Structure to design on (813 residues):
């Protein structure tokens, strides 16, 4: 999948599972950071990240191993899209 | 606060009915965490829990939670030797979360599949149902309360019970906690990825999460003068408690363990003892990576490093939710009385964060005069109970 | 033992969304309400993660603290009474599983399945870092929470506390209440809190004192778990009057927990009559316009304080649940 397509899927997840207003999700760009407290981020906290990872596993058919350090991949939509693209490509 | 006497104990645990079975299991370092039988676990990564074994007794028309609570409450009242007359003005404080949800879930599942089950199954859905059943069946007509502070509910119930005695409202209180396993609890902790697929390993370097359990425990709390006057046996004194709120996050504890440390310090202050007097900590010790790291940090902040004995009995009976604080209070009282510290089972390699002796795998003989029991819940609800040898 | 002052009230229900002044206007000219508008009380960032029942709670708590003029970050306890908790989120959580299996479970919804979720959200929103409790009881939870908080302030365990309750209607709940034979109840929804403070502390900071919570007691009358009992001798009313030093004959008005559940309402009237006989003060009830819910305890306490301030006669707030739990609060 292209990063652009993955981003659209993630926007859908923001609305359907993380209860963001549709217009807020539409405003999200690839460079938008995820974690709460980071300048310009959409403000996700630890519980949001769990919800997001469940939704990603479900939507993209991959398993996110919590023992692995996922923090760098959840820094922005760009890093996340790239990670998902790599994981889905490798099967 | 004025110390309150503990004069009766009752427990139904994954080791079976009765304080004796519970304590024998803990003292042996046995682990009661096994494959789940009460609910379907297909598709879940974790499929084990610590269930109360068959032979629960009581009317099958009652919810499982009510039956667990009744058995433990009856044992505590009989243990304290309280007759009908004395019970009449006794208070009742129940810590609960799941209520009759196990039965309500079955009702809802049946409805979802197009059947029309009787709504009677919903009668005892809420946590307050236990107190109604206990109060009626046991003739307790003093103050009656049901308390929900998530995983610290059972401990908070003992604290509020002690308040009733301290305030002179009543000389006797039956206080404790109960939770039966529910689908919602099991599914929810699975969704949060907080459950280990193997039996939990508190304070272990390689811990992977908690194990869910179920059970009930009640204690009789009594005004010391009242206990003395009737010649009651006093197991221990509940000499202080601390109850604090993180006001930080709905599921994560404060990263510095600030609220936990504040609860432990408040319990010491209420009892008028210094940290050096405490010989044993029955930890919350859920075995999630986060809880144990932060709790270890908070314990070190309050007690320093050294010889303190700290164990998590959840390694043997899992996390029994609203019952946990009460079951662990019973374990702490028994540890004082028997001069034996229950171990942390399944512990192979203590985490580097742990600055104390976790009593790995085997119970330790140790005469301890003062012990505390920690219970922390979602919503940053921290409770520390402090018990003293009488 | 310290005296307990009432220094603020916050209400969010169909008829009243506001503080002391809003309540006063409504008490002078009661009107039925409509939909609850939370408007500016909850901001958009918060609302994403707060279920509606949590939003009601946070909104009422903020109104009460603002009404009391209590600074954010002051040592504060919190006692929340509720009958049903966040049942709607619980149902939503379960529906996710029934629709899609484990992948349909929401980590965000799970904490809402535990009844302390409203207290947890509120403690964070208003920085309440002392004890925070959630008390669950049928029909009396709001009054019970206020009684428990009053005892904590009186004994010096906390200097100030937000106390009250919240409930939210749910179609499944109303359906099952009906099926269980309690369908005559007039149920409502909303949240309500009072701010209770040690009187010396309130005076020190120059707070406006709406009234004094002079006595609080709760006990159980004999009854089957969901049943209505026959005995009318109330230890709770006697205990609360004794604590307040108020003779039964001095009570100026009674605020019962009438809900439209006929047998329960009649039992409560008998209990009140037996406790105060031969004195028969007027009974003031709010369930026909607003509907019985755990937020009404705070409304009754605030209304009793207002009336007591005007008349000089103390008020008695009373609540009795099926199963026998009952609460008495003396306000002057």
């Amino acid at each position: 999948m292209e990063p652009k397509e993955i981003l659209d899927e993630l926007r859908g997840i923001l609305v359907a599972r993380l209860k963001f207003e549709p217009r807020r999700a539409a405003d999200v760009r690839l460079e938008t950071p995820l974690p709460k407290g980071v300048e310009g981020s959409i403000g996700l906290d630890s519980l949001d990240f769990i919800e997001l990872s469940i939704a990603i596993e479900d939507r993209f058919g991959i398993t996110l191993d919590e023992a692995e350090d996922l923090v760098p991949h959840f820094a922005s939509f760009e890093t996340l899209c790239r990670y998902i693209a790599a994981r889905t490509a490798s099967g | 606060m004025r110390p309150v006497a503990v004069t009766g104990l009752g427990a139904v645990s994954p080791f079976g009915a009765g304080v004796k079975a519970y304590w024998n299991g803990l003292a042996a370092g046995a682990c009661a965490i096994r494959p789940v039988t009460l609910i379907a676990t297909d598709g879940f990564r974790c499929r084990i829990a610590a269930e109360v074994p068959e032979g629960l007794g009581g009317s099958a028309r009652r919810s499982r939670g009510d039956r667990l609570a009744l058995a433990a409450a009856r044992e505590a009242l009989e243990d304290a030797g309280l007759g009908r007359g004395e019970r009449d003005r006794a208070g009742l404080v129940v810590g609960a979360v799941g209520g009759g949800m196990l039965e309500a879930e079955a009702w809802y599942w049946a409805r979802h599949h197009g059947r029309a089950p009787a709504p009677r199954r919903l009668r005892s859905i809420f946590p307050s149902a236990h107190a109604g059943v206990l109060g009626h069946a046991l003739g307790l007509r003093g103050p009656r309360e049901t308390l929900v502070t998530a995983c610290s509910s059972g401990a908070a119930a003992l604290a509020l019970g002690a308040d009733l005695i301290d305030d002179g409202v009543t000389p006797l209180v039956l206080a404790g906690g109960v939770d039966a396993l529910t689908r919602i609890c099991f599914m929810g902790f699975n969704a949060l990825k907080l459950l280990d697929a193997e039996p939990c390993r508190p304070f272990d370097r390689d811990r992977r999460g908690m194990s869910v359990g179920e059970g009930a425990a009640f204690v009789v709390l009594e005004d010391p003068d009242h206990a003395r006057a009737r010649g009651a046996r006093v197991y221990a004194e509940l000499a202080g408690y601390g109850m604090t709120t993180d006001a930080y996050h709905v599921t994560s504890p404060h990263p510095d363990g600030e609220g936990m440390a504040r609860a432990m310090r408040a319990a010491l202050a209420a009892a008028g003892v210094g940290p050096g007097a405490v010989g044993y900590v029955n930890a919350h010790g859920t075995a999630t990576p986060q809880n144990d790291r932060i709790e270890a940090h908070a314990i070190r902040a309050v007690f320093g490093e050294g010889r303190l004995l700290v164990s998590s009995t959840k390694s043997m009976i899992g996390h029994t939710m609203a019952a946990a604080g009460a079951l662990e209070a019973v374990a702490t009282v028994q540890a004082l009385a028997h001069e034996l510290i229950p171990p942390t089972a399944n512990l192979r390699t203590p985490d580097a964060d742990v600055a104390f002796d976790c009593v790995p795998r085997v119970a330790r003989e140790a005469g301890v005069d003062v012990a505390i029991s920690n219970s922390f819940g979602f919503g940053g609800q921290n409770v520390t109970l402090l018990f003293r040898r009488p | 033992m310290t005296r307990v002052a009432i220094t603020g009230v916050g209400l969010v229900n169909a008829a009243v969304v506001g503080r002391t002044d809003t309540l006063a206007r409504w008490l002078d000219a009661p009107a039925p309400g409509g939909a609850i508008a939370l408007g500016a009380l909850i901001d958009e960032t918060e609302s994403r993660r707060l279920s509606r029942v949590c939003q009601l709670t946070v909104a009422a708590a903020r109104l009460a603290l603002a009404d009391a003029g209590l600074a954010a970050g002051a040592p504060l306890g919190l006692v929340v009474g509720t009958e049903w908790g966040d049942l709607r989120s619980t149902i939503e959580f379960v529906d996710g599983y029934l629709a899609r299996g484990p992948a349909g479970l929401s980590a965000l919804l799970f904490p809402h399945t535990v009844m302390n979720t409203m207290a947890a959200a509120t403690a964070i929103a208003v920085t309440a870092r002392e004890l925070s409790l959630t008390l669950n009881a049928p029909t009396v939870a709001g009054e019970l929470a206020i009684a428990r908080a009053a005892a904590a302030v009186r004994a010096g365990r906390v200097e100030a506390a937000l106390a009250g309750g919240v409930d939210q209607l749910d179609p499944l709940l109303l359906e099952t209440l009906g099926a269980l034979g309690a369908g005559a109840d007039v149920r409502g929804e909303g949240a309500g809190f009072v701010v209770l403070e040690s009187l010396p502390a309130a005076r020190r900071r120059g707070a406006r004192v709406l009234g004094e919570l002079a006595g609080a007691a709760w006990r159980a009358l004999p009854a089957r778990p969901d049943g209505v009992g026959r005995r009318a001798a109330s230890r709770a009313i006697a205990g609360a009057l004794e604590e307040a030093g108020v003779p039964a004959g001095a009570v100026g008005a009674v605020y019962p927990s009438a809900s439209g559940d006929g047998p329960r309402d009649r039992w409560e009237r008998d209990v009140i009559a037996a406790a105060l006989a031969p004195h028969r003060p007027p009974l003031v009830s709010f369930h026909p316009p607003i509907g019985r819910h755990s937020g009404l305890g705070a409304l009754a306490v605030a209304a009793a304080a207002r009336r007591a301030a005007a008349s000089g006669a103390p008020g008695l707030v009373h609540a009795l649940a099926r199963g026998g739990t009952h609460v008495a609060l003396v306000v002057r």
Remarks:
- The first strand of chain B starts at residue 4 and ends at 13.
- Chain B has twelve helices and 16 strands.
- The radius of gyration of chain B is 19 Å.
- Residues 334 and 353 of chain B are 28 Å apart (CA to CA).
